[in-house]
Amino acid sequence: MATRTYEGMKFDAKGACPVADPLTVEEALQVCINGKPFTLTMRTPGADAELIRGMLHCEAILTDPHFHPVVAVRKEDDKGIVTEVNLEIPEGSLGSGYANSRSLLSVSSCGICGKTELTDLGFEGPPLQATTHFPATQFSELFAQMNRRQADFKQSGGTHAAALFDADGRLLVAREDIGRHNAVDKAVGRLLLDGTLDRARAMTVSGRISYEITIKAFKAGIPFLAAVSAPSSLAVDYAKELGITLLGFCREGRATCYAHPERINNFRAPAARPKAS
């Protein structure tokens, strides 16, 4: 199951219309070794045994390239997606990468990957409440403001960006980094140091929105989150639960809202379809 269909509202110059988009599934997989939690990875379900075997090799966790431990399923969710597996590996075959799961190379590309247990993903607090509203057309201008400050990307083509805006759409901060979640951390950190994080109402990010970006927006108290590319399934699920208005595909004057579209100016919910007689 690589995709899952989500309903959204697509905004463009002609107005708004409902859409049903396939979004890439993002789910956590807890990997245990010899019965003990070792690490978490956020992945698209499918080919899990390949993913795990490749990780064991590339991260120097399993030193014997000819030994392939059985991936034993320990837990599945109500959709049949595997959430926890166990591998029995002789201690003599465990390499240096086993000593500290937080040293995994994958940690640099994902704010969740490399944690040890599913309980580490927890967060606290009520859903965000927002009195701020933005017109759908304004997000193109927000992204234009962010793009003008992507000096590193213009030179290298290899960085992501994140920008924070106030309720009037004024840019508060824009930051770049090779990792999109690092760019978000830098932007939030700058406003924390300035004592102005409470002014932030919208966040734009380059690339896609995955689970960790949604959680970072929630923890920063930012109720609008928008990206130029697609959100993942888990990003939408948590945006709905946490009170975040989430928009994807914000480009060329268009945007698709997958969570809390009622905060978009001039939004009207589509009329209910008549029931079949």
Description:
- This protein is an alpha+beta fold and 277 residues long.
- It has two domains: 27-121, no CATH class; 126-263, Cytidine Deaminase, domain 2, CATH 3.40.140.
- The chain is built from six helices and twelve strands.
- The strands form two sheets. It has an eight-stranded mixed beta sheet with strand order 2-1-12-11-10-9-7-8, sandwiched between helices.
- Strand 10, helix 6 (233-242) and strand 11 (245-251) form a beta-alpha-beta unit.
- Helix 5 (211-219) runs parallel beside helix 6 (233-242).
- Mean pLDDT is 86; it is low at 105-109.
List the topology elements.
Blueprint: E1 3-12, E2 15-24, E3 27-33, E4 36-43, H1 48-58, E5 72-76, E6 82-87, H2 138-147, H3 151-156, E7 160-165, E8 171-177, H4 180-194, E9 202-205, H5 211-219, E10 224-227, H6 233-242, E11 245-251, E12 254-259
Parallel strand pairs: 3-6, 9-10, 10-11
Antiparallel strand pairs: 1-2, 1-12, 3-4, 5-6, 7-8, 7-9, 11-12
Helix pairs in contact: 5-6
Keywords:
single chain, 277 residues, alpha+beta, Cytidine Deaminase, domain 2, 2 domains, 8-stranded mixed β-sheet, 4-stranded mixed β-sheet, 6 helices, 12 strands, 22% helix, 29% strand, globular
- What's the story with the biggest beta sheet? 8 strands, mixed
Low-confidence stretches: 105-109
**Net shape:** globular
Order of adjacent strands in the largest pleated sheet: 2-1-12-11-10-9-7-8
What's the architecture of the largest domain, going by CATH?
Answer: 3-Layer(aba) Sandwich
CATH class of the largest domain: Alpha Beta
Distance between the termini: 35 Å
Strand content: 25-35%
